[in-house]
Amino acid sequence: MKIAFIFRALLYSLPFHSLLLLAQHQLSKTSVVHIGLIYPLSSNGRLAAEYSNPFSMHGLIGVSGAETGVALAGVGLNIRGNARGLQLSGVYNQTGGHVQGTQLTGVVNTAHSAKALQLAGVTNVVSQEFTGVQLAGVVNVAGKTDGLQLAGLGNTSRGSSQVTQISGVFNRSNQANNQIGGLVNVAKKVRGIQLAGLINIADTSDYPIALLNFVKSGEKSFSLSTDEILNTLLTFRSGGRVLYGILGLGYHLQTTSLLALEGGLGAHLMDTPAFRLNLEVASLTLTDFKNREYYRYALRLLPTFKLQDRWEIFAGPSLNQVHFKNENGPDLHGLPLWEKVTSRQTYGLYLGLTGGVQFKL
User: Fold this and answer.
1) Which of 341, 326, 361, 327 is nearest to 223 (CA)?
2) Which of 78, 139, 147, 351 is the most exposed place for a label (fewest CB within 10 A)?
3) Nearest alpha-carbon partner for 346 in 356, 357, 361, 336
4) pLDDT in tens, 168-202
5) According to the 3-state scheme, what is the secondary structure of the chain?
6) 236 pairs with which residues across the strands?
7) How far apart (Å, rounded) are the C-alpha atoms in residues 172 and 191?
8) Of 307, 314, 320, which is closest to residue 347 (Cα–Cα)?
9) Partners of 89 in the β-ladder
């Protein structure tokens, strides 16, 4: 709280009203070096906002009309117009015009537009067009963006963007080349990969990778399926033209106390009006949430026949890597290709079969 109070006090101490009045006039002065402590205690004095400087250094806060080289401040820089070169401060860099170069700060960088590298401990904000790289500990925000946004929490890009977004939690963009988010991605159009830990949302995205993908131009379906050991699941598949996510829930019917949970990724290898061929990679767990455990990692090829506009049937082989406790039962696998059985556990590589019926939403 003390730090926030001091920060606000320093900002409010600046004569912003005077700066706005000065902003109505074109810069007419240039100084070789601008040295100061805090506005107006500097070599350019109260007229600092009328000067363009190739080098500036301020103990606390610096004010200038433009910077064309290197600008340094212990707390912050307030640049009324454009800035080229390097702006380095402890807390914030504020530029009212266009930034070309590098902005480095401990908390926040702001600019009207930029072609730059922005590195901030908390956030970078560019109100209009941005080209370059934004790196922030928390959030990046920009208008039309061409480049990379990398943030610990999230990225937002407005307008028609050629951007790649990488974040720990969320990404949002009108248009994006790629989105990689720890939890959620939202876009209108994604040209490349859209990868999220849980949910992708888009109007158009051919390559979404998440458990849940809500793509307007893609498809969503529910299926009821079973396999060679009677794992029977209700599965939700959702995705784009090529890739889709898999999320299933069901029971092992031979032992209904074992709940089946499945998640994975699929791809449409072939798609015709009457037939499609799907390749899926999925992980399945059987558990009673106590001691009984079963893990299966499957690669399956599923020929699929379209019965009507919305109904399909599918059946195909699978290659499964299986690991389970022997107390679950001796028959929890398909045809063995290789296996090892100990007194407590069984694990190996097995052939299986999966089939079912699917309804497209």
Assistant:
1) 361
2) 351
3) 336
4) 999 999 999 999 999 999 999 999 999 999 999 99
5) CHHHHHHHHHHHCCCHHHHHHHCCCCCCEECCCEEEEECCEECCHHHHHHEEEEEEEEEEEEEECEEEEEEEECCEEEECCCEEEEEEECCEEEEEEEEEEEEEECCEEEEEEEEEEEEECCEEEECCCEEEEEEECCEEEECCEEEEEEECCEEEECCCCEEEEEECCEEEEEEECEEEECCEEEEEEEEEEEEECCEEEEEEEEEEECCEEEECCCEEEEEEEEECCCEEEEEEEEECCCEEEEEEEEEECCCCCCEEEEEEEEEEEEECCCEEEEEEEEEEEEECCCCCEEEEEEEEEEEEEECCCCEEEEEEEEEEEEEEEHHHCCCCCCEEEEEEECCCEEEEEEEEEEEEEEEEC
6) 222, 247
7) 14
8) 320
9) 73, 105
Residue 220 corresponds to which amino acid? K
Domain covering 219-360: architecture: Beta Barrel (2.40)
pTM passes above 0.70: yes
Using an 8 Å Cβ cutoff, are 245 and 282 in contact? no
